[in-house]
Amino acid sequence: MSTSTVIRGGLVITASDETHADILMEDGRIAALAASHTPAAEALSAERTVDATGKYVIPGGVDAHTHMELPFGGTFASDTFETGTRAAAWGGTTTIVDFAVQSVGHGLREGLDAWHAKAEGNCAIDYAFHMIVSDVNEDTLKEMDLLVEEGVTSFKQFMAYPGVFYSDDGQILRAMQRSADNGGLIMMHAENGIAIDVLVEQALARGETDPRFHGEVRKALLEAEATHRAIRLAQVAGAPLYVVHVSATEAVAELARARDEGLPVFGETCPQYLFLSTDNLAEPDFEGAKYVCSTPLRPKEHQAALWRGLRTNDLQVVSTDHCPFCFSGQKELGRGDFSKIPNGLPGVENRMDLLHQAVLDGHISRRRWIEIACATPARMFGLYPKKGTIAPGADADVVIYDPAAEQVISADTHHMNVDYSAYEGKRVTGRVETVFSRGVPVVTDREYTGHAGHGVYTPRSTCQYLT
Ligand code: URP
Ligand code: ZN
Ligand code: ZN
Ligand code: ZN
């Protein structure tokens, strides 16, 4: 395996620049960049040269929201760290930040250790962890400090899922106060789960059991209300806040208002909210179950607000919330009762391509594509500039992207361990050709050349987006 490679002639795109440059990768890092066809570029030499003429050369994607092997609704997300990170590599993502889970009655450390055991030695690309906090108490709060020190610097809390991951406002406030002190970042699942559970019960009592009712009971107003409440709790605590999987126009408006007030409040959306809608949830013969996730898919009209938020920086990140469940045997657990359909969609392999299509569709610029998919998630979660950009000293996580190749997204050809694609039949232009992870080719000319165990755990610093 060569330890040095030069990539020549591509258009190097970062969040800030587009330049025709040659890149020298040495010992896992970017060693040098030089404008193509100049003496400086010709002086770059390596054991291996790759021609990227006509291609984009972009930082590897940073997917800050995945759930490999997540236990949910009596089953487990169908991608393991091995299959899920391989699929991520195929899709041009070279870092994931997955969620370790604290179970109620157990400690954060115990949950984190369990997730390390699932991931270690199995990943094709580098990985890090957030911590899901399901049980705020004195011990948990102390453990938060220790986790921040060792590189788990963000904590997800849930205003939804009473009895499972749910935290009440007091628990949320206490965790936010702690994060204000220790530099951690609270990530919020903002939906009013107490109210939603009442609506679920009432819908089922009326015989409304189909998947589409999942979308109807999880109302946009209840996402907006929770988003508002999370923002004000964070303001009272003096803590920054990152709201995950934002899907509703009204929730974006809450974020925009808070940001106009100068609050350190951030928002993430996901490809499913940008490209899918309640039309998918309403597909007949229980097919709608394939699109059950929370927050839910919204009517198409919400998409414009999400795209606008991404352009105006009221939303900063697009992650996948990759949480796949097979239609057969897993989504089917909810036949006759939508509330028993495991929540989550596959997508870790599709994010970079879908967002490139969004560039072609005129929603975002090329640099904004890289910013929301690579640079900002790296900054937000303390991985920059090691991850998320192409610059001397950065990890050599580099993707050669063919902007003209056409593909049709399909479960027949994807690499995620799930029996359907949420984007089945969608035509997109642009495709990953070659992927380097710390200088090692893990995908080479559309062939998988990586291996489980190449990816390493990557501790993180605290949020760098504010500094
Ligand atoms: O439906 C979803 N989003 N499943 C994954 C868990 C979560 O809430 O992010
Ligand atoms: Zn969530
Ligand atoms: Zn999630
Ligand atoms: Zn290796």
TrEMBL record:
Asked if the Swiss-Prot or TrEMBL record annotates the protein with the keyword Hydrolase, the reply is: yes
Q: Where is the signal peptide?
A: none
- Post-translational modification as stated in the protein's UniProt record: Carbamylation allows a single lysine to coordinate two divalent metal cations.
Instruction: Name the keywords, alphabetized.
Output: Hydrolase, Metal-binding
Looking at its record, which EC class is this enzyme? hydrolase
One GO molecular function term of this record is: metal ion binding
In terms of InterPro entries, this protein maps to: Amidohydro-rel, Hydantoinase/dihydroPyrase, Metal-dep_hydrolase_composite, Metal_Hydrolase, Metallo-dep_Hydrolases_sf
All copies of domain Amidohydrolase-related, residue ranges: 56-440
User: Needs which cofactor?
Assistant: Zn(2+)
Q: Which Pfam families match?
A: Amidohydro_1
The highest taxon in the source lineage is: Bacteria
Keyword Nucleotidyltransferase tagged: no
- Positions of post-translational N6-carboxylysine modification: K156
GO cellular component terms, alphabetically, are: cytosol
Query: What Enzyme Commission number(s) does the record list for this chain?
Result: 3.5.2.2
Family to which this protein belongs: Belongs to the metallo-dependent hydrolases superfamily. Hydantoinase/dihydropyrimidinase family.
UniProt protein name:
Dihydropyrimidinase
Q: Name the lineage.
A: Bacteria, Bacillati, Actinomycetota, Actinomycetes, Catenulisporales
Q: Which gene encodes it?
A: hydA
